Amino acid sequence: MSQYIPILKPCSKDASPCQEASKTHVVVFFIAAYLVALATGGYKPCLESFGADQFDDNHTEERKQKMSFFNWWNVSLCCGLFLGVTLIVYTQDYVAWGVGFLILTVAMGLTVIVFVLGRPFYRYRTVQGSPLTPMLQVMVAALRKRNRACPTDPSLLYEIPKSEELQGSRLSHTDRLRFLDKAAMMDEHEIGNSGSRNQNQWRLPSVTQVEELKLLINMIPIWLTSLIFGIGISQGSTFFIKQGNEMNRRIYKHFELPPATMYTLTAIGMIATVALYDRILLPYLRGVTGNERGISILKRIGIGMVILVVSMVVAALIERKRLRGSEDGVILSVFWLAPQFMIIGMGDGFSLVGMQEYFYDQVPDSMRSLGMAFYLSVIGVGSFLSSFLIIIVNFATGWNGGKKWIGKDLKHSRLDYFYGLLTLIFVLNLGVFTQLARNYKYKNVQRNVGINHFEGDDKQVEAANLVV
Fold this sequence. Notes:
Elements: H1 23-52, H2 60-94, H3 97-117, H4 133-144, E1 170-171, H5 188-191, H6 207-235, H7 239-245, E2 250-252, E3 255-256, H8 264-289, H9 297-327, H10 338-361, H11 368-397, H12 415-439, E4 445-455, E5 458-467
Antiparallel strand pairs: 1-4, 2-3, 4-5
Helix pairs in contact: 1-11, 2-3, 2-8, 2-10, 4-6, 6-11, 6-12, 8-10, 9-10, 9-12, 10-11
């Protein structure tokens, strides 16, 4: 609307050039920006977890399909990103901003219609209270029993009988954070009623509830190391683009490539990596390791972190070459940035998809949307940390009249030094992450796995009680 309604435009027709936007336009702009942030925070974590919930964990084939779901979800996102930074950016730069926004509005409207039309075919989970209540029940019960000795025999801990159905998965006992096991310890008068579900869960939560709280506590260190990784992800859409703005973007006569269009290479790198992993590497790794995931989730994330380190090294070397060329009056082609964009996209194909799987799969079943919010926070908080790091670096390097590494003009900045600093930080973070991954205990689920056998037109389902 700010492009077509006169009162909402940044400047009047007579203001040429436009020195300052009107207050009305500024207000409308920030309202739109915050609405985008609000909508993104609302639908993104819910939509992805809702999509993954369409697959049944108790069926082997559907569970494998769910693992591929995260791969192809990201391929779809990258296709949208590809169109956004090519078709939409070109339209906004060379046709009109209003036309670009209008295309996006129509596209979003169509997606909502398609989503609503699919409602009769979706699978839904029954909502049962706040997912935080069971966590609080475990902490309260553990504090009440804090003076009791930790049980050595897991059979002395209370669990809801297998004859009764649970809304989520039934988790097996683990030896980590044994202090919390006290919450599920039964008193003498409770042992006789252990087969009853009508227990006061504020006094006696189940082993599954205890293990769900352990999952969240064990996830905190992984989340913290992922935030450092988020700093690196933010470079692809900030300084990488800014580098491109300082380089020769002319590719044919009077046509200049918009700097943001280079980000398509990141999308291409991610699409290629995810497709290669899902169609070639994953079936091979399943056969070699016997793991239906091919490799563990944290190993996949770790591979992406290694690739991110490589991309920062390449970015530092290319930036140094650009600076030397600038000193000699030579402007490098923007395609010198292609390797760092492609490499960071390849890393995203491992790390970002792995994080989505991790934060969806390793949280309690009732908190999967919140788990996807944790994943999104890696990107959001990582961007804030990146800005904070830039402030610290400029403060330190500009101390006592020194030259700041990062200025408004990249010709007089030392972005290569900054990339070198990021490389050092990422290597140290990778070391911490590797140690955490080695000691990490994955979610221990007791499942009824359906195995389908087809005989003529009859479909028989056998169930095997497995611990996964």
